[in-house]
TrEMBL record:
Residues 1-25 have a biased composition (Polar residues). GO terms for molecular function: transcription coregulator activity. Component of the Mediator complex. Keywords: Activator, Nucleus, Transcription, Transcription regulation. This is Mediator of RNA polymerase II transcription subunit 7. PANTHER family: MEDIATOR OF RNA POLYMERASE II TRANSCRIPTION SUBUNIT 7. The lineage of its organism: Eukaryota, Metazoa, Ecdysozoa, Arthropoda, Chelicerata. Component of the Mediator complex, a coactivator involved in the regulated transcription of nearly all RNA polymerase II-dependent genes. Mediator functions as a bridge to convey information from gene-specific regulatory proteins to the basal RNA polymerase II transcription machinery. It comes from Leptotrombidium deliense. GO terms for biological process: regulation of transcription by RNA polymerase II. Its main location: nucleus. Signal peptide: none annotated. The keyword Nucleus applies. Belongs to the Mediator complex subunit 7 family.
């Protein structure tokens, strides 16, 4: 319940003695509060301190009222017309599509008859009879359509699952393409890495040139560099060769 005061509490002290007090008005909403007013209370702290509302209890009574209509717990989802006090206009064994087409034609014919009655004799009881016949046909058609609701629900679930399957299949296909591309890149990099023997031979040749002073550019001086100065880790030599190739 929402309560609105026309005058704030602190304004009573400043009001003149001759002024009449405005009565407070109470506003009551005809509809329940929005969902945010409920789920926002279910915080971790409120749940630990048991400050949240308890879930609604199951109905203990057999009958209950919903929107002014008395409902029963053990009722079927789609109640037969006979249980509602309505006469059935189609046989027990029937085809929904065929009966719906017949009722659609009957409604059109009765509507044309109603127009003819309204033109020729609108004040007769025949007009009421035609309106009642059209209303009965609409009730029968509405009941037949409701009987197809379970089938519609199953088809909706089937279509939704097919969409999810296709969506996930597309994701898997794109992921496999990316995996294949990464594998190709890794295979290409592995093929470009020189063999261990080639790296070792190249390192031995480089060490021989540097130690003996056989460099072609003449910048190295023989005897100034010892063999221990050029001892390198085998993995370091491999990395150097990879960097040179890049």
């Amino acid at each position: 319940m929402l309560t609105a005061n026309a005058t704030p509490p602190h304004s009573m002290s400043t009001a003149s003695p001759n002024a009449t007090a405005v009565p407070s008005t109470s506003i009551q909403s005809s509809y329940p509060l929005p969902p945010s007013q409920y789920y926002s209370n279910y915080t971790d702290e409120n749940v630990l301190r048991n400050r949240v509302l308890e879930p609604p209890r199951p109905l203990s009574e057999v009958n209950y009222s919903m929107f002014g209509v008395t409902m029963t717990n053990d009722d079927t989802i789609i109640r037969p017309l006979e249980t509602q006090g309505i006469k059935r206009l189609y046989p027990r064994d029937y085809d929904h599509k065929r009966e719906l087409k017949k009722m659609n034609i009957s409604i059109l014919v009765n509507f044309l008859d109603l127009i003819d009655v309204l033109v020729k004799c609108p004040d007769t009881m025949k007009r009421e009879e035609k309106c009642a016949d059209i209303a009965m046909l609409f009730v029968q058609m509405h009941h037949l359509i409701n009987e197809l609701r379970p089938h519609q629900a199953r088809e909706t679930i089937r279509v939704t699952l097919q969409y999810q399957k296709k969506f996930r299949g597309d994701i898997i296909m794109r992921l496999n393409k990316q995996i294949d591309r990464v594998n190709e890149i890794i295979a290409t990099c592995m093929n470009n890495i020189p063999e261990m023997n080639e790296v070792r031979n190249g390192f031995e040749e480089l060490k021989h040139i540097l130690v003996n002073g056989d460099a072609s550019d003449g910048n190295l001086v023989n005897g100034d560099i010892s063999e221990s100065d050029f001892e390198m880790n085998e993995l370091d030599s491999i990395m150097c060769s990879i960097v040179d190739d890049i």
